[in-house]
Amino acid sequence: MSNLSGPPVRQGEAASRPRPTRSDEPAAVLRPTRSPVHASSGTRLGTARPRQEGPTDLRLVPPALAAWGTAALVLDAPPAWVFGLVTACLVAVGLLPLSRRVRRIRRVQRVRVASWPRASAAALLLCVAAAAASAGLHGADLRRGPVPGLAREYATVTAEVELTSDPRLTRPKVRGDHVAPTAVLIDADVRRVQASGGAAVTTRAPVLVIVDMDAAPTGRVAGGRGRSPWLGLLPSTRLRVSARLAPAMTGGDRIAAVLRVRDQGEPDVVGEPSGPQRLAGRLRAGLREATDGLPADPRALLPGLVVGDTSRITPELEEAFKETDLTHTLAVSGANFTILLALLLGPPGLAQHVERRGLAPRLGISLRGTAVLGGVLSLGFVIVCRPDPSVVRAAACGAVALLALATGRRRSMIPALATAVLLLVLYDPWLARSYGFLLSVVATGALLTLAPRWSAGLRRRGVPPRLAEALGAAAAAQALCAPIVAVLSARVSLVAVPCNLLAEFAIAPATVLGFAALATAPVAMPVAEALAWCAHWPAGWIARIARAGAALPGGGMDWPGSWAGAALLLAATLVVVLVGRRLLGHPWWCAACGLLLAVVVVQPPPLTRAVTGWPPPGWRLVMCDVGQGDAMVLAAGEGTGVVVDAGPDPQLVDHCLRSLGISRIPLVVLTHFHADHVAGLPGVLRGRAVGAIEATGFEEPADQAAFVRRLAAARRIPVTRAAAGEQRRTGKLSWQVVWPPPSPPPDSPPWTPPGTPPGALPVHPPAPEGPNDASVAMLVRSAGLRLLLLGDLEPPAQRALARSPAAEALEGVDVLKVAHHGSAYQDPGLIRRAAPRLALISCGEDNSYGHPAPGTVAALRAGGAAVLRTDRDGALAVAGGGGELRVARD
């Protein structure tokens, strides 16, 4: 065997010294050669693959961070402060020593740290000065021109605006007993404004346009009655609107005012959108059309995965994605752009070598041609997916890498990320305050720094390479992003990493097939529909993962929603990482910790009951803590319960039912159609077998009654009307409806209530004065307990009930569900007749209605009742039977 010769090579110097060669090799091989970066893209597989990636260069990181922080702080600063900061930075640059720059390079674990004292300080100061100047100018844009002054006067104006975003529909919000009307929100720039009696003024001021849906023509309002024409507008469209200006609702936003449009139907278009936006609009509309025939979840999710179009995402599905930290899949980000570039360049690992895969080398496109094609792809990506912060960051980072590819320079993603941050913050300083931009940059930084180290550590411990890579990426992104998410949602997901791991394998095929459907829809809709049908399988898988993770009782935990809470979570994460590194060498300890985490997340009902005591054994009635609203559960057997009202929030009532282990609901009783009693119905129906829905015959408010009927029709659940005299039984639970009386048809003869004594005169039932007086009231019997549930009955209906034939059955009940959240409007006669031992009040903490009224609480206690309320005591469970009565609090 021939001896190898040559001096020893230290770590990190292999790239600068020729490798040791054998003496019998040809002379041509003995001469070290350096492969050019612009080598032919068709390099034969199996040949040498010189890396184009050098040691990590961190010189751009401090200037990028300094510019980011400066822009975030200076946007609201007075002009004098901005001028002073810029001047101070420029003077400091001029005062730096003029001695010759000295370069010192030391290598530590392949990381190059270059010390350029003067150059580094000068670059840092110049970036701070540039960021301060840019932020000062952008902040001044919100204060100049006539719009801010008119907004302070709440002036009515005629304005010409240019849209800068897609219209979006607000989610319905429950406010008291009604649902706030939905509205269309659009970001726009005011180009011309004319106040009443004044002259038109040309200006440029960013505003938020709010179009109340009530202003749209009848039959065109979204939410089941058609689609508002405002939702079809494209960015760059110019409109003329008559509206009222108002100051921005919160400080720190990039809007100079709010433009609220009222009493206007079809939008008055005065300028058509640009050509690129029309093309993007056709592509997006084509994708929506191609997905029309898919099941509900893939139909809603696929446009969001591909182009960030979340218009079809239901609040229930959106909440599931938030609970599992999968919301990033709905916001187009670097992952989508990486998938597209991988099609062009091949896998990211091979893209760092001269030898590449992907479509470009197979089509014979050179590296520079590939870079140009990638730039065109980046531009189209931003136009079609809209310039959201994560999209812009991904495109800018990719553009920097493509520029390095075209110029033949060594490229590293960390300098590319720092360059992208620096350029974007200088171009648009408002990104410095964007949580979306912050999450995008932090997630990318985690994938570039922590993920490779964690993946390598897992591989050293025997984890398969592909699984180690996926687990390292998911864990690194979650570790750094979770504190920021906690600030926004005051919650930490315990299932985020496994849910992201399970969803990762479906994101790439769903995205690729979705983009293929997007591209083919304008020319071949049947092909696009076939591609969308193929894509609906991985998209549906992602939706099922989100729903399953959100359904786990311990899938998340509340956390302080502040930056102090974020720091605490970051410290806790660091402790978990340090402890986890030691546990990886002890398989049994790892298994024990994994089992403990699984128990915490799944929370098996028997174990949970043994540890927490909730729900108490033998419970008969549970009043759920759903805030300012009503939701109760009547025990009807193991895992079975009759639900009375659903509260205002699907998440809260769903959590209550899961804590009780309720999976079968023979009947849902909706006492009336106010939103604080029915808006949570999706949470009741979620994952449960429901036999029927029974509601009052007074279907007001009409929109909430229609909402209930739509949900029931979608699940094929029959809806019936409740009327006095109806009696039902399921298991050991029985009940009688005591109110409202049946509504007779017009010109009907007088009505004789059931149980009327012989000889009594028939009467006409009183017409309800509103939804509250039409509430369904029930007398429930369970294991010897008598419970009276009054819904939201007002005094007129309460007095009529006290005089009804059922009044005798109401005397001396064990438990009274106090009407209308304990408001002051109660009939003392009905309270005295019921004479409850226990009074339960469902109300929200610090509600604006003053519920419960002190007078009502005093009257109940004066009658000998113990009074409990959900705003102070939480969820309440009543147990016992006969003369025994016990109450447990959750």
Can you offer a commentary on this structure?
40% of the residues are buried. The chain is built from 29 helices and 31 strands. The chain has 890 residues and is α/β, with parallel strands linked by helices. It starts with 26 loop residues before the first helix and ends with a strand. Strands 22-21-19-17-16-15-30-31 form an eight-stranded mixed β-sheet, with no helix packed on it. The longest helix has 27 residues, at 525-551. Helix 25 (702-715) links the parallel strand 21 (693-695) and strand 22. Helices cover 43% and strands 16% of the residues.
Task: Give the SSE layout.
Layout: H1 27-30, E1 56-57, H2 61-74, H3 79-95, E2 104-108, E3 111-115, H4 117-141, H5 146-152, E4 156-163, E5 168-169, E6 173-175, E7 178-180, E8 183-195, E9 201-212, E10 238-246, E11 257-261, E12 268-271, H6 275-290, H7 296-307, H8 315-323, H9 334-345, H10 348-351, H11 359-362, H12 367-385, H13 389-407, H14 413-427, H15 435-460, H16 465-489, E13 491-493, H17 496-520, H18 525-551, E14 556-558, H19 563-583, H20 587-602, H21 605-612, E15 619-623, E16 632-635, E17 641-644, H22 650-660, E18 664-665, E19 668-670, H23 675-678, H24 681-685, E20 689-690, E21 693-695, H25 702-715, E22 719-721, E23 727-730, E24 733-739, E25 777-782, E26 785-789, H26 795-802, E27 815-817, H27 828-834, E28 838-841, H28 854-862, E29 866-869, H29 870-873, E30 876-879, E31 886-889
Parallel strand pairs: 1-3, 9-11, 17-19, 18-20, 19-21, 21-22, 26-27, 27-28, 28-29
Antiparallel strand pairs: 2-3, 4-8, 4-10, 5-8, 6-7, 8-9, 10-11, 10-12, 13-14, 15-16, 15-30, 16-17, 23-24, 24-25, 25-26, 30-31
Helix pairs in contact: 2-4, 2-14, 3-4, 4-14, 6-17, 6-18, 7-17, 7-18, 8-18, 9-12, 9-13, 12-13, 13-14, 13-15, 14-15, 15-16, 16-17, 16-19, 17-18
